[in-house]
Design a protein that fits this description.
With 289 residues, the protein is of the alpha/beta class. It has a domain of 199 residues: Purple Acid Phosphatase, chain A, domain 2 (4-Layer Sandwich), CATH 3.60.21.10. It contains four helices and 13 strands.
């Protein structure tokens, strides 16, 4: 499966090094990062891995983020262990916190859902201060939208979901900050993690109303793919499945594959990790004009 992919994308919460003390053989925060990156060497040595920040990248301790030494706070390990194209996409000096790139028929935008927008979660710890994310995002989306004739799809990825049937996951502050720009520049899809399961939603309008179709919807389609695998375990099935949700799967870890058939048709598949059996797929059609 991975042999046929152009690159891999991890949507935050990468090494879980901030919970190193819960591992069976606890080492240290930085050593856990080292071990995780060494584990990925067989893949990262042959295939690009694109990353973005999640809440577990914020500091060396999830329960007490500000108890860490200064060099292990404010996403420092994350910012210095990777080299994403932030500078090249106009986000000078933010060190991987947000960026964008084109590949084939799609413009991919990676946003930071934990800092540098009004009421962002990590601001209560004094984290952030990397730059004006919203001004950068508007400029980037405006340029991408004007370039649809050459690169028709706009895909945004961020760690925290805007919507979910799981009660703790939806980020209302993210919705307030980002959704207006998504609507203005007609973002096609938004992928998130954070909830440790798979949840495919419909296209969702800014008022929270789902548009129950993948045939030329007028709002972004939202998908949570947070079941990559980690020590906290899978998220339990929500007691109430919201009207915005089309499918939930939490029986195993998994991964997804996004492909672009042409300028109007994108194809999404979700696979169970244990045996690579496909458990979900959709074709999204967006007519340009």
């Amino acid at each position: 499966m991975f042999d046929n992919t152009a690159f891999n994308l991890l949507i935050g919460d990468l090494s879980y090094a901030d919970l190193y003390y819960e591992r069976p053989k606890a080492s240290s925060y930085e050593e856990t990062w080292d071990e995780w990156q060494e584990m990925l060497d067989p893949l990262t040595s042959i295939k690009p891995f694109m990353v973005l920040p999640g809440n577990h990248e914020a500091s060396c301790s999830l329960p007490e983020p500000t108890s860490c030494p200064p060099q292990q706070q404010n996403f420092t390990a994350y910012r210095h262990r990777f080299r994403m194209p932030s500078d090249e996409s106009g986000a000078k000096g933010v060190q991987n916190m947000w960026y964008s790139f084109d590949y084939g028929l799609a413009h991919f935008v990676q946003i930071d859902t934990d800092t540098d927008f009004p009421n962002a979660y990590q601001h209560k710890y004094g984290f952030g201060g990397f730059g004006n994310q919203l001004a950068w995002l508007e400029a980037d989306l405006s340029k991408a939208h004007a370039n649809r004739a050459r690169v028709p799809w706009i895909i945004v990825n961020g760690h925290r979901p805007f919507y979910s049937s799981e009660t703790y996951s939806p980020c209302q502050e993210c919705r307030a900050a980002f959704e207006g720009l998504f609507d203005k520049y007609k973002v096609d899809m938004y992928f998130a993690g954070h909830a440790h399961y798979y949840e495919r939603m419909w296209a969702i309008h800014r008022d929270g109303t789902p548009e129950k179709t993948y045939l030329n919807p007028r709002a972004p389609t939202h998908i949570i793919n947070g079941a990559g695998g980690q020590l906290e375990g899978l998220t339990p099935m929500p007691e109430v499945i919201k009207d915005t949700t089309a499918k939930i799967y939490n029986e195993d870890w998994g991964y997804g594959v996004l492909s672009f058939v042409n300028s109007t048709n994108a194809h999404w598949e979700y696979f169970r990790a244990s045996d690579r059996v496909k458990v979900d797929e959709i074709s999204l059609y967006r007519y340009r004009g």
